[in-house]
Amino acid sequence: MKIKKFGIVLLGSFLTISLVFYLVNLTGNHIWLASFASSTALLFISSNHSVAQPRALIGGHLICALVGIVFYHWFEDHWWVMAMSLSVGIFLMLATRTFHPPAAANTVIMINAHASFIVLISTILLGTVSLVILTAVITRVTKSKVPYPSHWFAPSPRARDWGIKH
Description:
Helix 3 (about 55-75) packs antiparallel against helix 4 (about 80-95). The chain is built from six helices and no strands. The chain has one domain (about 1-145). The termini are far apart. By secondary structure, the protein is mainly α.
């Protein structure tokens, strides 16, 4: 039984990220691939968790990429800009309940890449929607116990569930 689960994770994550890498590679930018790779791991290991659901996955990536692009265009690429954009990206994901941990890296990635706004559609939206569709197909074809997504629009955890003691 465990062998089947490991096989699904191995094959599913390989097929999913391979196609996403191929699609993103068509844009000529390889730097975005790191956050997508982390998202793939999360999708196949914790696919029923709220941070792995489409709302959090797509929303988190788009929010953090947008924050990184805006901060780069306003302040250029200094260390403090990367730190500030990361903090703002995390805050906005939590505030909108679209928290997806791998997406936080997009703030720094966009600044390092000197990304333009077109990247939001040509790479981030394309990559995240591809991740959702491919994971959904693979979990259904392999007859996974918990097909992905478990909730299309499920918000990520509320403030009281963040684990921060006040």
